Amino acid sequence: MMVVIPTIKQFKEHIGIAKQAGISIGFVPTMGALHEGHLALMRRAKDENDLLAVSIFVNPIQFNNQEDLKKYPRTLEQDSIMLESVGCDLLFVPDTLEMYPEPVTDQYEFGKLSEVMEGASRPGHFNGVAIVVRKLFEIVEPDKAYFGEKDFQQLAIIQQLVKMIPLPVEIVPCPIIREMDGLAMSSRNLRLSENERFIAPLIYQTLIKAVKLNTLLSPEELKKWITDKFKSHPEFKIDYIEIAEDQLLQPVAHWNDANSVYIFVAIFLGNVRLIDNMRIF
Ligand code: AMP
To answer: In the chain, N or C terminus with fewer CB closer than 10 Å?
Structure first.
């Protein structure tokens, strides 16, 4: 049976008992509106640890757009059924006041990593992510925590955070889970209109084709090729397209500038902002 806990104090009591018994804790932090992408992280966490802890908290301080926060889907009843199905043991569901009884002022410095892509497009976003993830790690004390590569830059930020503090937790990256038509699963997909949902797989299809073009085009030419693809469909509004290395996620000018290179995109479909990425090599 899953235990649902809204307070830090109670949650820590459960964790204390588990720790004393030498039970290993796998943790998946989420903002709810769960889908198969989240469940894949949870199945892995359950498999690799004695106890599966999950949090659902729509973290207001990581939203730079108040409309996005207001419209973020909240589906706790359905989430609970999905959590039971993957054998979640402890579910942490704090409210905002429980997490932030006082205004938070912490400032984290992630250098170049936070200056590109999501960091550039969403000011304050990663600081808000770092604050909540640190706080959750201190409450849950996980042995391992699982994060999706869908939010590749967030994963890199968290890896840097636990090294910087430092925090005794192993960060486990997990591959992107997609719908049958290739669209990366996301809670925000629920906000797409029928027509937007129908054309959304173009993002995946474009990435797949682009990856194959790296032997023919330079990074700059490839970026232009991808840009043109989206520009020919007026429903899509590009936020950014980057061809970048996998460490500090800096753009590459030449293919041999890095050992591993990814395409990263953020695209608006109507007022829903979707992100995706794919490894080139
Ligand atoms: P969120 O609830 O959107 O904050 O996501 C919680 C965790 O699930 C994060 O580590 C995300 O990267 C991960 N996640 C979300 N969507 C996917 C997906 N399609 N595939 C893999 N992981 C995902």
So the answer is: N
